[in-house]
Design goal:
alpha/beta, 6 helices, globular
Amino acid sequence: MSDVLLIDGDILVYNTIYACAEETKLAVVSKTAEALHRNICTMSGCDKYLSFLTHSSSNFRIARATTWPYKGNRKHKEKPVWYGDIRDHYLTKQGYQMMRGVEADDALTIAAEVLVAQGHTVACATKDKDLKQYPWDKFVDLNTDKVYSISEAQAHEHLWLQMLIGDKS
């Protein structure tokens, strides 16, 4: 049983926005954000959580990407309606942490390493397939709403599969 859930807050922001695409009241969007957060925590069975958001303009990958702009293949450059409001909600009401210099998914694996070294078991909640390259006691797959574990062998398999087939997304 995992005792700490690590949530990819960037994914949850977009899940909230898309769930509220037609909504016109911030109070309703905020309630949806709380419900989505609560649902993920319930699915994981964990009694504690940490969640991270990415401070995009300080991401170290921006300066490192010299051939093509980092995430330059993404179609929509403008942030969707509710983006800032929902990030603020998760920061102030749910205690999510803003990461500077690294992305939220990087922070999740760094936190997992620290927590495991301290004797904790960890779960991860995300849609990001890159996080399947890490062994998790529990993986809350927000694409399928399924919860499963990822062994070290499975994590290596995900890594090498992605290395062999490439990744354009």
